[in-house]
Amino acid sequence: MIINRITLTDFNDILPLFTQYMTFYGVDSPESEYALYLSDRLKNQDAYIFAAYNDKNQAVGFVVNYQTFSTVELGKVLVLNDLFVDADSRNQGVANKLIQYSIELAREIEAVRVDLSTAKVNFPAQSVYEKIGFVKDTRFFSYSLSVKEHPPIG
To answer: What is the pLDDT of residues 12-34, one digit of tens each?
Structure first.
């Protein structure tokens, strides 16, 4: 297995995987929207994306990371936002390897921590995260507000 950082020249390698990922989370949008979104993230240097390739040079997994900040910790935070491994390549260490690349990236950018979230019912992913050393947050609740559905102020 080889892990490469994705650039504008090779982001198409992960589009079929990204479609599977979005389907897993119940999002039904055309692949062209994913392609535009990913290319914009890469063009604007908003995201760090890594892909895992098998011995046939086929992408079998990816991880998308974003950078944010913590005022309380006075430092950068790497958000491991998206992680997906093709069903045929699971249980072969692909997710673990991609996560390790995210952790190394966090060290390179001098982040204070790596954050992630996953579906409450995604027990296989939770198991992987906990084996690596991620700790489920018990201090804070997460909230989210869709600005598309929230009325504007005034």
So the answer is: 999 999 999 999 888 888 889 98
- Sequence-ordered list of residues with C-beta below 8 angstroms from that of 64, at least 6 positions apart, any chain: 41, 47, 48, 49, 80, 81, 82, 83
How many Cβ atoms sit within 10 Å of the Cβ of residue 15? 16
Distances (CA, A) of 145 to 15, 116, 148, 149, 150: 27, 18, 9, 8, 7
Q: DSSP letters of 9-39?
A: TTGGGGHHHHHHHHHHTT----HHHHHHHHH
The pTM is what? 0.90
For 125, the token pair is 């992913």
Residue with tokens 């060290």: 107
Crossing angle for the helix pair 31-43 and 15-24, to the nearest 10 degrees: 110
Contact between 127 and 95 under an 8 Å Cβ cutoff? The reply is no
